[in-house]
Design the sequence.
C-alpha cells in the first residue's frame, strides 16, 4: 500500500515538473526572423552557411551558448558529441570575445562543433534569445522546437528525432 502512495506522489511530481518545464519553454521561446530571408552566416573557420539550406533535408540543432555561461559548460560536451555522431548542428556563441579567443577556448575544451561568433550579441537579439543555453530546432526553414537551460544529450536526440517525423 505504501508503494502505491509513493508511486502516485512521484507521478504527480513528474506531471507538475513537466508542466513547469513546458511553461518556461513557452515563456522563453525565441522569435526568429524569417529564416528564408536571413543572410548567410560566417563560421569562425571562414565558411559561410545558410540556416535554410542546412535545415532543408534534415532538422538542424541551433545551439545558442556563451563561453561565460555556467550551464553551457554542462551542455556543450553533449552538443559536441551529437555533432561528432553526425547530428546536424550549428552553434552561435554569444558575446564570447573575438574569434581567436573563442577558438582558443574551444580547442582547450576539445569542442569541434561548427560555431558562428555573435561577438556583440546582435544575432541573438534578432532572435529574442534571452537565456543561454537555448536550443532551437529548425526543419525545412521553420522553427519546430525550442528549449532553454540545461538539456541532456538524450533529450536533445529525442527532440531531433521528433522534428524529423
Sequence:
Amino acid at each position: 500500500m505504501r508503494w502505491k502512495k509513493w508511486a502516485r506522489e512521484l507521478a504527480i511530481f513528474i506531471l507538475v515538473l513537466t508542466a513547469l518545464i513546458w511553461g518556461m519553454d513557452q515563456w522563453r521561446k525565441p522569435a526568429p526572423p524569417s529564416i528564408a530571408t536571413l543572410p548567410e552566416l560566417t563560421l569562425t573557420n571562414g565558411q559561410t552557411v545558410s540556416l535554410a539550406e542546412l535545415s532543408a533535408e534534415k532538422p538542424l540543432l541551433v545551439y545558442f551558448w556563451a563561453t561565460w555561461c555556467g550551464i553551457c559548460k554542462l551542455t556543450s560536451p553533449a552538443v559536441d558529441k551529437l555533432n561528432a555522431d553526425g547530428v546536424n548542428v550549428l552553434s552561435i556563441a554569444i558575446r564570447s570575445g573575438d574569434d581567436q579567443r573563442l577558438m582558443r577556448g574551444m580547442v582547450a575544451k576539445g569542442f569541434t562543433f561548427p560555431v558562428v561568433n555573435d561577438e556583440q550579441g546582435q544575432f541573438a537579439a534578432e532572435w529574442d534569445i534571452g537565456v543561454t543555453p537555448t536550443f532551437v530546432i529548425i526543419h525545412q526553414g521553420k522553427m519546430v522546437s525550442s528549449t532553454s537551460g540545461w538539456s541532456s544529450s538524450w533529450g536533445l536526440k529525442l527532440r531531433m528525432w521528433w522534428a524529423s517525423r
Remarks:
- Residues 13 and 112 are 38 Å apart (CA to CA).
- The mean pLDDT is 89.
- The longest strand covers residues 142-148.
- DSSP finds six helices and seven strands in the chain.
